């Protein structure tokens, strides 16, 4: 071994020289897998070619694992897509859409200033004689439809009879048709509101500051000569006792949803909480697919073992004999009030602890190792537990008995049973009150309808409550059966006695 070898050195100097020298074992080799290791698919292809050249003596190569195969297929299918949104990356289409959006005139949100490249329609209209147009207008169109069609072109205006088509809307018998025609002109009047009693547009005096007030509070939104005229009331929908939603507020919310914030107010401005006559109420509104949805939760404490007369005093208002909670115009026909009375009968009664009867109850509780609790959770029966839907309007009801804290005495912590009635309703698109324009509003208020409203046929398996709760809270209600509020379809109204 040569003398200059590190292993042959001796002494203290050689010891420190070897100790401070970097060791070769610490220099770990790092393999370049990207350059040396082939891909998995190429490796399988090479082995298969080798197996074919060698014959059947070579065992078959196992296929890819299911997870790895799924990953490779997913990469091939989504190679040209955005991994977050799943959309195709078409940069040409993106640039074209940006250019088109920049060409739009911001002062014209409806696009009326764009050049119309369609061929003129006057030659097609000239093929029909004027008498035929008069026949169509007289037997197939309403006065409001004729006025809307006359705005299309001057040729149609003169074929339908000239300016007298619009003048006919001022006749008293065409008052409803004029309101239907004015509902189509909302987008041209952002600073005005449609007044249904006057059948005209009034200028807003509280632009953007409109607030929903109780019905006994004078709350003008525009200067109207019929504001205090009881013979021409503004159309409204009863929310609860002493509260109503005027069609003007529904129109404001839907205008803001369709045309922009300058046309109305957001639905959150209609949310309210209040107490009256021992009942607590909570309202929420939301716009879904162009319709205004409403939820009203009403609750009050109820004592156990109430007789029928006390149940009526708890549920009905002495002023108009309507329920304190929210109800549609068809609440008298059906099982709604019977369901509420049945739920009140499920509140547990406190046991009598006097005399031998009380000793017997205490002995049974001691034998079965249980403690009687009058504030236990209440279970409803098969009659009052399911959700009820009105067959003649888009309204759904849910009656519950909940254990609620009584905060009337802050010094004591006391829980009592309370009846909770929740109503979900679809109030339509807010454009009008007639069944031709807004059938949901007309059905909820039991107004004149050209055709009866069939909620089960129109809604089907889709429930208003599930849609509303999924939008507001991101969750859905627990599984509830939806039964008809009026399975026999009897329409007795006040003449019937089952509602009282």
- Helix proportion of residues, in percent? 25-40%
Q: Please list the strands of the largest sheet in the order they lie side by side.
A: 5-6-7-10-9-8-11
Number of helices: 18
Class from helix and strand fractions = alpha+beta
Question: What sequence of helices (H) and strands (E) makes up the elements?
Answer: HHHHHHHHHHHEEEEHEEEHHHEEEHHHE
Largest sheet: 7 strands, mixed
β-sheet strand percentage? 5-15%
Number of strands: 11
Q: Average pLDDT value? A: 80
Shape: flat
Q: What is the straight-line distance between the termini?
A: 118 Å
Radius of gyration: 38 Å
Describe the structure in your own words:
The chain has 500 residues and is α+β, with helices and mostly antiparallel strands. Among the domains are: 122-170; 182-207 and 219-252, no CATH class; 266-351 and 358-491, no CATH class. Helix content is 31%, strand content 15%. The protein contains 18 helices and eleven strands. The chain has helices at 12-20, 33-36, 40-54, 66-77, 91-103, 122-126, 130-139, 143-150, 154-159, 164-167, 175-182, 247-259, 308-315, 336-344, 355-367, 439-444, 455-459, 464-472; strands at residues 192-195, 200-203, 236-240, 243-246, 272-276, 279-288, 291-301, 387-389, 395-406, 414-426, 482-484. A hairpin with a 4-residue loop joins strand 1 and strand 2 (200-203). Helix 8 (143-150) packs parallel to helix 11. The protein is flat. The N and C termini lie far apart (118 Å). Residues 1-7, 31-38 and 100-107 have low confidence and may be disordered.
């Amino acid at each position: 071994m040569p003398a200059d070898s590190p292993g042959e050195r001796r002494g203290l100097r050689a010891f420190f020289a070897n100790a401070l020298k970097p060791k070769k074992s610490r220099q770990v080799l790092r393999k370049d897998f990207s350059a040396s290791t082939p891909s998995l698919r190429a490796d399988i292809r090479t082995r298969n070619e080798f197996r074919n050249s060698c014959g059947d003596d070579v065992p078959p190569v196992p296929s890819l694992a299911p997870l790895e195969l799924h990953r490779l297929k997913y990469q091939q299918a989504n190679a040209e897509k955005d991994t977050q949104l799943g959309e195709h990356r078409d940069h040409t289409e993106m640039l074209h859409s940006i250019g088109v959006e920049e060409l739009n005139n911001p002062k014209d949100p409806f696009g009326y200033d764009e050049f119309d490249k369609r061929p003129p329609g006057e030659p097609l209209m000239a093929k029909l004689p004027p008498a035929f147009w008069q026949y169509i207008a007289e037997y197939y169109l309403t006065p409001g439809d004729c006025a809307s069609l006359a705005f299309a072109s001057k040729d149609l205006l003169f074929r339908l009879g000239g300016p007298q088509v619009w003048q006919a809307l001022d006749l008293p018998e065409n008052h409803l048709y004029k309101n239907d025609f004015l509902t189509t002109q909302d987008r041209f009047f952002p600073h005005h509101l449609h007044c249904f009693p006057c059948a005209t547009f009034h200028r807003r005096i509280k632009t953007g500051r409109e607030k929903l007030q109780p019905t006994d509070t004078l709350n003008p939104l525009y200067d109207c000569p019929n504001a205090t005229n009881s013979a021409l009331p503004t159309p409204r929908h009863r929310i609860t006792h002493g509260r109503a939603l005027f069609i003007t507020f529904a129109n404001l919310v839907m205008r803001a949803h369709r045309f922009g914030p300058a046309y109305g107010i957001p639905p959150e401005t209609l949310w309210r909480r209040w107490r009256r006559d021992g009942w607590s109420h909570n309202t929420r509104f939301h716009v879904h697919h162009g319709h205004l949805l409403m939820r009203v939760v009403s609750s009050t404490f109820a004592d156990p073992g109430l007789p029928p007369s006390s149940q009526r005093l708890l549920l009905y208002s002495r002023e108009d004999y309507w329920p304190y909670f929210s109800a549609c115009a068809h609440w008298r026909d059906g099982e709604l009030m019977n369901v509420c009375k049945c739920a009140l009968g499920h509140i547990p009664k406190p046991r009598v602890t006097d005399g031998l009867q009380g000793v017997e109850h205490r002995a049974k509780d001691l034998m079965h190792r249980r403690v009687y609790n009058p504030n236990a959770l209440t279970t409803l029966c098969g009659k009052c537990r399911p959700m009820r839907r009105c067959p003649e309007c888009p309204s759904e009801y849910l009656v519950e008995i909940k254990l609620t804290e009584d905060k009337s005495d802050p010094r004591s912590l006391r829980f009592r049973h309370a009846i909770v009635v929740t109503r979900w309703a679809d109030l339509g698109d807010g454009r009008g009150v007639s069944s031709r324009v807004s059938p949901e509003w007309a059905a909820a208020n039991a107004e004149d309808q050209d055709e009866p409203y069939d909620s089960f046929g129109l809604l089907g398996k889709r429930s208003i409550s599930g849609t509303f709760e999924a939008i507001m809270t991101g969750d859905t209600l627990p599984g509830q059966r939806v039964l008809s509020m009026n399975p026999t379809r009897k329409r007795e109204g006040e003449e019937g006695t089952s509602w009282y």
